[in-house]
Amino acid sequence: MSATLAYVTAERIGEALTPAGAVGAVEEALRAGLDPAVGPKRGILDVASGQLLLMPAETASAVGVKVATVAPANPERGLPRIQGVYVLFDAATLTPRALLDGTALTTLRTPAVSVAAVRPALLRETGPLHLTVFGAGPQGTGHVDTVAGVIEGHRPLGTVTHVVRDPSAVTGALREGAALVAAGSPEAAEAVARAHVVVCATGSGTPVFDSGLARPDVVVIAVGSHDTDRREVDGALVGRAQVVVEDVATALREGGDVVMAIAETDLTESDLIPMADVVTGRAVLSADRPVVFKSSGMPWEDVVVAEAVVARLRG
């Protein structure tokens, strides 16, 4: 192992790869033939203070593993509930190439995957894109930055509204001009009604908005829940939408928004659209129905974006 193994901080990750660049890296990998259905499964190990998560993945040129921890008591200590690091190896020699901040990598790659999965729907109009985000944490703001980066030069970003339970409790920085409103308020309902894109990044176990308010061509991105009995989007919307997922088997194993809609509506497993089909053009998203992307978060996404970060750092 090299004595100069690089540690890539959160700041350097942001400097090396823009949100739009991360979207491009995801799309490039899928167009090159990466199959999200192939690869080792993530492992979850119980430890005294919580859980240890192991997320290995491999591409033709790199192997990597994210080691993350979940410590439920950490917020009371003023520490993040989830922390982690990412180790990137050379695929041929398995020599370690870099160690990356795992939290920053996740914050970059999750919205990159979301936007890659629905990019054609974001670019099919030229007028201002109105965006409503449930949640104001790193994933909520990360999705705003990623959508803005991808539509730049194609259409302007219109209103941005974050919907949260308690606006006074939000301490993180929001995009300039973004509004912050309370869940359940008339302002929140108005934000849903005008939104071309609704992002759900809350971890809620129950739907966070009334889908009857949404536009008939709304694009919904749901990233916050990861259990089959929890969802952020109601079955009525998912059931009538074009539903895009990273991998069908993973969505059926972990995506409550999808699993519960299949149980409640006419949506079937065969209706689910792998995001690779959207990225490569094998599937075309029509403008006369909603689009729902349900993300589970998969290890291949980390290795693809980590490799892109390191490649840019090394020029």
From TrEMBL:
It comes from the Bacteria. One of its GO terms (cellular component) is cytoplasm. InterPro entries: NAD(P)-bd_dom_sf, ODC_Mu_crystall, ODC_N. This is Ornithine cyclodeaminase/mu-crystallin. It comes from Actinosynnema mirum (strain ATCC 29888 / DSM 43827 / JCM 3225 / NBRC 14064 / NCIMB 13271 / NRRL B-12336 / IMRU 3971 / 101).
